[in-house]
Design goal:
Number of domains: 1
Structural class: mainly alpha
Number of helices: 5
Helix content: over 70%
Strand content: under 5%
Number of strands: 0
Length: about 160
Amino acid sequence: MSDPFLDVLGESIKLSVAPVFLLTAVAGMISVLTQRIARVIDRSRFLQMELLNQDKVPLTPVINKIYHQELVKLAQRATVVNTSMALLVICAILIALTILELFLSETVSGRLVTSSTLMYTFIGGVLSFVFALIGLLIEVLLASYTVRMKPISKQTLQL
């Protein structure tokens, strides 16, 4: 004969583990966004140094304008990445609260007793994840649209 407490504990662990997979996805997304923001920061630092060192290596007005425009686009990308990162952190917190509530509700009372809070934390977490994915898509599109696909002619550089 099995112990009822162990049965309840086993069932609560099973229920609590399902949302953990979403947390794994969130961790992967945070890693991707961290890499993307690092690239944005590195590129903006490079452009800022180029603009600051104009007294040593002068830039043509066209290149100067291109660098300034790219810095504006990089700032937009950074804003989108940071917003997505914030949404992922909110998602992780809400999913962790969902896991905690699932685990505690079953182990404290001996049976699954959930409140409406469980529904709100889970749905809020999933919605945050979806909006973070949309943010990632926007950032990728911004990045691909800002890449200059055609070379700058020597004639343009001398303007």
